[in-house]
Amino acid sequence: MSRLARIPTQDFDRDVTAVAMDDRFILVGQVDGKLSAVYHKNGVSVFSTKVSDSEITAVCCEEQDEDDNPIFYAGDVEGNLYTVNKKGKVLKTAKLQARKGKIHTIVNRNKYSIYAYSSGGSTSFSHATTDFRKGNFSTASANYSFDGDGTFHKKKGAGDYNVIQYDARTPTKAVATCAIEFGTKVRNFEQVFAYAVIDEEYENMIEEGTAENSIQVLNASSKKIRTLEFKSPVKQVMSCRHHQG
After folding, report:
1. Nearest of 136, 127, 226 to residue 179 by alpha carbon
2. Beta-sheet pairing, 144-146 with 133-138
C-alpha cells in the first residue's frame, strides 16, 4: 500500500513552484529560479542549481533519453526554457515571446522535442539538446474560459477567468481544474486532457469558499457525460495511464 513520506533532502524546503517526475527522478523548480533533482528511490540529491533569476513555472523530465545521460527541462515566468543535464548544467536555452504568456506546462513530444504550453497557447520545440529549434505556435489549447458560477465555456473571453487545456499525464501550474476530457486511444488507453483555470484572481474565490467544488467530465466528442463533486475545489488532475512501470 502506498504511503506519503517526506523526501530526506534540504534542497527544496520551501517556495516550490513546479514538480515533475519519471521512473527515476523527482524534478523540482522553485520561486528563486533554482532547479533540483533527487532520486525518488531514496531521496539522494542528483543536482541543485540556479538556472534562472526568475520563478520556475514548469518542469519536465525527458521521456526518451538515455540511462547514462538523463535530460531535464524547465521554464520560468519570463518565458525562458532551459535544457539541463544530470550534472545541473544548462545545455541550451530558448525563449517564448512575451505576448504568448507565462509557461504553465512542458510536455514531451518526441525525443528531445517538447511542447511549451502558455496562457496564449502552445509552442513546439525540437533538438532541445543542440540548437533548441522553435516550431509552430497554436492557440487551440487556450481557447477556453470559466465563470464564477461554474459555467465552462469553449471560447476564450466568454467567461470570467482564462482556462487552458493540458495533457493530464504531465504536471501543470494551475490555480484550479474545472473539467477533464477523454481523447483518442494511445497504446490501448484513451488520453486524458484537463482544463485549468490559470488566472490568479480565482484564488480569491477559493480562499473565500465560493469556488466551484466539482469538475465536468467530457467524452471524446466534447459532450458532458457526468459531473464529479468534491468537498473542495480540484487543484490538478493526473492521469497515469501512459506512464511506464
Report:
1. 226
2. unpaired
Query: Quick check: helix, strand or coil at residue 70?
Result: coil
Name the strand (E) or helix (H) holding 74: strand 71-76
Sign (positive/negative) of CA torsion 122, 127, 128, 133? negative
User: What span, in angstroms and rounded, lies between the C-alpha atoms of 153 and 188?
Assistant: 30
What tens digit of pLDDT does each residue of 28-68 get? 999 999 999 999 888 899 999 999 999 999 999 999 998 89
| 63 and 70 Cβ atoms separated by less than 8 Å | no
Over the stretch 95-130, which tens digit does the pLDDT of each residue have? 998 889 889 999 999 999 999 999 999 999 999 999
State the Cα–Cα distance between residues 113 and 15, nearest whole angstrom: 28
Q: Is 100 helix (H, G, I), strand (E, B) or coil?
A: helix
Look up the pTM and report it.
Answer: 0.87
Asked if 228 and 158 touch (Cβ cutoff 8 Å), the reply is: no
Other Cβ atoms less than 10 A from the Cβ of 216: the count is 18
In this structure, how many other beta carbons lie within 10 angstroms of the beta carbon of residue 152?
20
- Pairing label, strands 189-197, 161-167: antiparallel
Residues 6+ apart with CB under 8 A from 56: 17, 18, 29, 30, 31, 33, 34, 35, 74, 75, 76, 77
**Residue 66 gets which letter from DSSP?**
B
CA–CA separation, 85 and 70 (whole Å): 6
Q: Distance (Å, rounded) from C-alpha 76 to C-alpha 102?
A: 8
Cα–Cα dist 213/2, whole Å = 26
Report CA Rg, the chain: 18
